[in-house]
Amino acid sequence: MPGTGLATVTYSFAGNKDGQTPAAGLIRVGDSLYGTTAGGGASGRGTVFAINLATGVERVVHAFAGSDGAQPLSALTYVGGRLYGTTFGGGAAGSGTVFSIDPASGTETVLHSFSGKDGANPLAALVELQGQLYGSTKGGGAGGFGTLFRIDSETGNLKTVHDFSGGSDGANPAAPLINAGGILFGSTTRGGSSSDGGTVFKFQP
What we know:
Blueprint: E1 27-29, E2 32-37, E3 47-52, E4 58-63, E5 77-79, E6 82-87, E7 97-101, E8 108-113, E9 127-129, E10 132-137, E11 147-151, E12 158-163, E13 178-180, E14 183-188, E15 199-203
C-alpha cells in the first residue's frame, strides 16, 4: 500500500480449482492483472487467471487439461487483443505448447505442440517483434540443448531459428528474451566457452 511501507494480500489461492503455485510475473490488461499458475485448476494442470484490480476478485480464464498444455511457468504476452503464453508440459507429445487465449471468453487455442525435435519444455515468456512472436525452449532441438523459435500468432506456423549446441553458444535457455532496437538478447543457464557457466547471446532476425 503506497505510503505505509506495508504489503497487503490482494488474493490468496486456495490451491484447488482457482489454481496454485503461480511462478511467473503478471501483466496488466485494462482493469485486470493476468497471470498463470503451474498447478491447480479443474484438472490440476495449471491455469490462466485474472484478478480485478479494484475488487481483488479472481477469475479462472482457462484451466489446462493436459492435451492443451500443462504447467504454464511463463508470464503472458498481450498482442492484438489476445494473451499468448507457453506451457512447460502437456500438448500432443507432452513436451509443452504455445497457446493463445481470448481474455474475455477464455477460449484457448493451441498454436503449437512441441515434439522434441523442434524444442521441448519452454520456460520463458514470448516477445513480439516485427509481427512475429519469439521464444525459447529449455530442451529439445537438434542436440537436446534447447532452441530459439519464431511463431506466427495467427497461423501457428513455427520455425526453429537456432538450435543450441551446448558448446560456446550456450545450452538450456530459461529466461525471457528482450527486444532492444530490433535485436533479441537472452541468456542460457549452461554452456559457453568456460566452465559450463552459461552465456548471454543476441539474435538479429
